[in-house]
Design a protein that fits this description.
Layout lengths: L7 E5 L4 H12 L3 E6 L2 H15 L3 E5 L5 H15 L4 E4 L14 H29 L2 E6 L2 H5 L5 H21 L4 E8 L12 H10 L8 H12 L10 E4 L6
Parallel strand pairs: 1-2, 1-4, 2-3, 4-5, 5-6, 6-7
Helix pairs in contact: 1-2, 1-8, 3-4, 4-6
The protein binds NADP nicotinamide-adenine-dinucleotide phosphate.
The site of NADP nicotinamide-adenine-dinucleotide phosphate has 28 residues, from helix 1.
Length: 248
């Protein structure tokens, strides 16, 4: 039996990178998946590719997680297509790095708006279905820098630390209805978000990582799959680090 047989999942920012890998892993384990990302074209292409590879039901949608109406519609469209929503992965995220002294107010606001408010809006949108069903999973993709802080990433680190507070509050609020809410805190993962790093910087980072390598999107997808599936029924309000031991 596949681990997510009969389940329906919505994954935000899933047209590429970590989100795409999570969507593919969930589909391979039997879930129907909604791939919701900024570009409709990219979402539909990813949905078609995953459907062809896994045979799973897929839906590609345009979504800006910082807009409440988009979030409500993405969840409503998912329920219309698959009949329910069992799993939400809040993965959409952006960076607008810079030292605080030079960081524009708009760069702070937009990162908080997508990374933190977006997760709140999507969680709110799925909550009415999950609370009624008395079952559900929410997995928030935070970051190692939400735990450690990072020079040049005050906005991003604050959004990712905020996600951990959101995770714990939702976990407490939803626990009586068996809706479990956890976070994954990835370290350095090989995606577009980290591709601008020079080879020299990547080599230096790898030296600092006890497991000796930068992570792959699949490493994060496996953790999300665990938190979304039947092996984590007594786990809520937790932060699972996937960082090769970089921060313990
Ligand atoms: P990525 O390759 O840049 O993918 C992020 C996706 O989110 C993109 O498809 C992007 O769409 C989408 N997106 C951006 N703004 C959005 C919005 N307002 N509404 C909906 N979708 C939106 O990044 P990634 O590395 O896979 O990161 C995925 C998550 O993991 C993020 O939350 C990130 O903070 C977190 N994370 C990453 C790392 C890492 O090392 N890569 C480490 C720790 C945590 P467009 O392509 O159209 O812009």
């Amino acid at each position: 039996m596949k681990r997510l047989e009969g389940k329906t999942a919505v994954i935000t920012g899933a047209a590429r990178g970590i989100g795409l890998e999570i969507a593919a892993a969930f589909a391979a384990e039997g879930a129907s998946v909604t791939i919701a990302d900024l570009s409709l074209q990219d979402s539909e292409a990813a949905a078609a590719d995953i459907a062809a590879r896994t045979g799973a039901g897929t839906l590609g949608l345009a979504l800006d997680v910082s807009k409440e109406a988009d979030c409500e519609k993405a969840v409503a469209d998912t329920v219309a297509a698959f009949g329910k929503v069992d799993i939400l992965v809040n993965n959409a995220g952006i960076t607008k790095d810079g030292l605080v002294l030079r960081m524009k107010e708009t760069d702070f606001d937009s990162v908080i708006s997508v990374n933190l408010k977006g997760a709140f809006l999507m969680s709110k949108a799925v909550s009415k279905f999950m609370l009624k069903a008395r079952s559900g999973r929410i997995v928030n993709i935070s970051s190692i820098v939400g735990l450690t802080g990072q020079a040049g990433q005050a906005n991003y680190s604050a959004s990712k630390a905020g996600l951990i507070g959101l995770t714990k509050s939702l976990a407490r609020e939803f626990a009586p209805r068996q809706v479990l809410v956890n976070a994954v805190a990835p370290g350095f993962i090989r995606t577009r978000m980290t591709e601008d790093l020079k080879d020299e910087a990547k080599a230096k980072i790898s030296e600092l990582i006890p497991l000796g390598r930068i992570g792959e999107p699949g490493d994060v997808a496996k953790a999300a799959l665990f938190l979304a599936g039947g092996d984590s029924v007594y786990i809520t309000g937790q932060v699972l680090s996937v960082n090769g031991g970089l921060y313990m």
